[in-house]
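Tutorial handout. Part one gives the primary structure; part two gives the three-dimensional structure as tokens.
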Amino acid sequence: MRKTIISIAIVAVISAPGLTMAANEGAVPASLKEHVSSDKKVVWGGGAKETSSYSGKIVPVVINELASERLAGYQWGGPSEGTVMNAMKVTVNPTHLALGQADILQALNGQSIPGTTWTYQFTPVQDDIADECLYMVTKSPHYETWGHVLENAWDIKIATGGEQSGSFGTLTKVLMDRYPALKDAEVSSVGSSSNIVQSVINGNTNFGFFVMRPDPENKVFQM
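Part two.
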């Protein structure tokens, strides 16, 4: 299976009551109330620990570091749909901490949260946690270069993450802005990175795109 790889930084972000309320006046919008948590000490990562480097490897390190700085009691928030969801979580819950992709977080900060009068509000607190790679995978032997993908974008199907994920955002906002030809491709959201790869293996789509740490122990890279 061929892979095209580039690098993106993983960033930790946090909001604060003053920052959120200065930009977002009034009560939390009704459409966001389901995301309000009574737990004040939460760290958001990615999907399930078995397939997400965020949740399985980085979040535990972050929690230990917080404890060493006399900020004990933080816990993993559970599976998240990804960077966009995490940005919303810390905006609505100002004491929460979240991990996310640098490119998506930079684009989101200060922008409107769809369907509300609120905007995403957060501050990067650690911007050199680790790097991730962008993977475009296929079983087809005919696509040997990125140029081949762009030239035939009108005729390809790309499976990627959910609409709240960094993978979806990087593909539809960052890459499609840089490479307009990709806008002609048919894009479907299938969930986790393992779902994306499985979709390619099963022949449901001819390409899969996701953003992930290059971790040989992760089962996604063993599929």
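Part three, for discussion. Residues 1-7 have pLDDT under 50 and may be disordered. The chain has two domains: 9-130, 133-222.
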